[in-house]
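worker-3 :: picked Acetoin utilization deacetylase AcuC
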Amino acid sequence: MATTVLIYYDFRMLGHNPHGWDPGRPEWTDAVKAMIELQYPNSNLDTYRHPERPERLTAIVDSLLLEPIDGVRWMLLAPASATQLERAHDAAYVAHVESLDGQSGWLAKDTTAVSPGSVTAARLAAGAGIGAIEAIAAGEARRAFCIVRPPGHHAPADRARGFCLYNNLAVTAAHARKALGYDRVMIWDLDMHHGNGTEAIFYDDPNVLVVDSHCAAPFYPGSGLLAETGAGAGAGYNLNVPLPVGSGNATLQAVFEQVVRPAARAFRPEILLISTGFDCHYLDMVCAMDETGYAAVTQSICALADELCDGRLVMMLEGGYNAKALADSAYAVIEALAGNPVSALNVLPDDPGAAAVADAATFHAKAIGALAPGQAGDANTEN
Ligand SMILES: [Zn+2]
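worker-3 :: tokens ->
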């Protein structure tokens, strides 16, 4: 019998639809034009469309509707409240984003932008994770996948960045801590880009362990070095695994086996949260993973959650900009969450990420060995 997988999605997230280059808009300055040309050197500004577009989600949803997976349960979700958002973001920043409701504009030179429906979409994306952990805490199921946009992991507490308005997974983790009373929350960010926002929000927090594997700097956003290991009470609770361009499925599995699993076994999280970007897919940017790699690692993550935290697991969509790669990868991941057997792993003859993972595991070995199993009794529950 299939395992229940809660799916959180709301069509209003399609209302976030920033336009491409529009010379008729005065706020789209030469600086923005230069940034687009820098980041997308092959783009033609006349036909340029913002890469973080609604079809990213409809591609995934269509694949799930076309061939339904046993065990999938579609859930309604509520937008995150200001109080919930302010657990991860500054109140002034939340007020700034809310003030943009109904408007269009660019928020950062890295082409982060809003359209009139973006603020509603952002509230819903952050609310998805809260709905998921509330349902899991209530015992409705153990596994959830949130099909959301705008993504979240580049947004720190005080600004929009990298297509991200609210940090959906950070809001979720903060809710787990402050509203549900979990003492130990573990995040693995496996998006191709470093989750700089998530790192910053929990950098001094020993109750939220963050592991982040990503394409190494100078790739966007240029952070995520091995040496960024946390600060203050959170020193040793931030583990980066920078990877070379071209890394494939064996690398992803090695990150799990050599860093994520040993860190989890030392930390003993009460819930696992996965920032799930599919932009490492070979059809997308500069890495070489595929849906067999994402499915296999999902199976491994499920086993780890079953071993350590009664199976409690939330996977949250982050990046991924190729519709076919998104649809195939999310489908394979959700099939694995539902307990289906996974396809044979496609492995590169010479995966370039192997040495980088071994280096990171060696670098972090002492910190992993010293990971205290959270600070029990320090949950600071608000209600
Ligand atoms: Zn990404």
